[in-house]
Amino acid sequence: MSPSSKDQIQGKFHEVKGKAKQAAGQVTNNPNLEAEGQAEKLTGKIQKKVGQVEKVLEK
Question: 4 to each of 12, 24, 31, 45, 50, how far by Cα in Å?
Fold first, then answer.
């Protein structure tokens, strides 16, 4: 598996995990958990984009 594919997969994983944390924070009324989820979701989006750029540059 190429590094770009790994970055895309890991990015999607972090995005989903962040969404789950954010939802859990909203349900439990925990702003710290909600903020942590938003940050992880953003990190995942960035990592996924990095993988997409790497894939384009591999060609």
Answer: 12, 30, 33, 14, 8
Tell me: pLDDT of 47 over 90. yes
- Compute the average pLDDT of residues 25-31: 97
Residue type, 45: K
Which residue is listed with tokens 């789950």?
20
Provide the whole-model pTM: 0.85
- Are 34 and 20 in contact by the 8 Å Cβ rule? The answer is no
Domain ranges in the chain? 3-58
Q: What is the distance between the alpha carbons of residues 45 and 23, in angstroms, rounded to a whole number?
A: 17
Q: Are 6 and 51 in contact (CB under 8 A)?
A: yes
